[in-house]
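ARCHIVE CARD
CATEGORY: sequence design from structure
SOURCE FIELD: tokenized fold
FIELD CONTENT:
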């Protein structure tokens, strides 16, 4: 199943699609109070090539700060690298390329990277993912002390917005609070109802309790369809990972017998986990395992 091809829209992106909502969101995250006349320019990329990487929202504040905000139900350790690739495309979009060749320094908005997490797996209230964690060890290749200063770094601020996490942050944004309440209500109903019924029940609850009421009244059918797509996508990703684990485990055991069962199991597990974290499909993982010769470390 091509998960990315099925992913058409995001409720989060729809909620935070106006300057007013983005101003409110950033103020809540940073604990500041942006004046209502602070200019907000949305510059989210719509290129389909990036639909499988980052497709929520990016915007500039007063043309001085460039914010890339992403909502995720699963945490991907490659987010810093993905955002690095994304931010270059955004700068290409908002900066006149000719100015790069002028003598004077061209001032650009400072970037800030934010991920809002509301998945089911436990996660701390706040965590920082760093691009440098992905760098390979270069010890012995240069004379300076590695690790003291990186020539390139990118920090991603991850906030857990599930009910009960970061209450101060969430309460500062009525939209974010409503979204958190809605997701919690869907999961509560889903324990005893099919997904579609749980969605409908959660929307009715929100309408009755003035939670994102205007949003649901205006876009109820569209929102319902988007939600079903998002939830099914999340489940498909989880299923793909489980299937990939089972397939990879069998391959790992088979190759492990050639050099010692225990060693092969450990090696197989580590490499399979890396492939799963990269978001590869079951078919691609199987292809790589089949192609590898002698040891899983060849992957």
């Amino acid at each position: 199943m091509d998960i990315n091809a099925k992913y058409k829209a995001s409720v989060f992106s729809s909620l935070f699609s106006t300057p007013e909502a983005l101003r409110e969101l950033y103020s809540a995250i940073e604990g500041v109070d942006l004046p209502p006349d602070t200019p907000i320019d949305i510059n989210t990329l719509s290129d389909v090539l990036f639909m499988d990487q980052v497709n929520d929202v990016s915007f500039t504040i007063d043309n001085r700060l460039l914010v890339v905000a992403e909502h995720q139900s699963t945490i991907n350790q490659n987010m810093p690298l993905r955002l690095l690739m994304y931010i270059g495309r955004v700068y290409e979009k908002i900066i006149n390329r000719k100015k790069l060749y002028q003598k004077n320094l061209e001032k650009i908005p400072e970037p800030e990277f934010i991920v809002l997490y509301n998945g089911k797996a436990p996660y701390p209230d706040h965590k920082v993912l760093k691009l440098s964690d992905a760098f390979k060890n270069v010890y012995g290749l240069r004379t300076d002390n590695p690790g003291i200063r990186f020539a390139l770094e990118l920090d991603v601020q991850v906030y857990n917005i599930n009910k009960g996490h970061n209450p101060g942050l969430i309460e500062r944004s009525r939209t974010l609070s409503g979204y958190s309440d809605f997701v919690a209500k869907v999961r509560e109903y889903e324990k005893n109802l099919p997904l579609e019924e749980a969605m409908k029940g959660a929307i009715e609850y929100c309408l009755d309790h003035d939670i994102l009421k205007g949003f649901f009244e205006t876009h109820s059918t569209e929102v319902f369809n988007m939600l079903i797509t998002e939830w099914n996508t999340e489940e498909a990703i989880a299923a793909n990972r489980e299937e990939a684990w089972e397939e990879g485990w069998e391959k790992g055991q088979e190759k492990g017998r050639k050099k010692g069962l225990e060693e092969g199991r450990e090696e197989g597990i580590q490499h399979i986990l890396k492939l799963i974290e990269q978001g590869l499909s079951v078919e691609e993982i199987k292809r790589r395992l089949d192609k590898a010769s002698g040891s899983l470390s060849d992957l």
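CARD ANNOTATION: Confidence is low (pLDDT under 50) at residues 1-9, 48-54, 293-299. The longest strand covers residues 65-72.
SHELF: design records, drawer C
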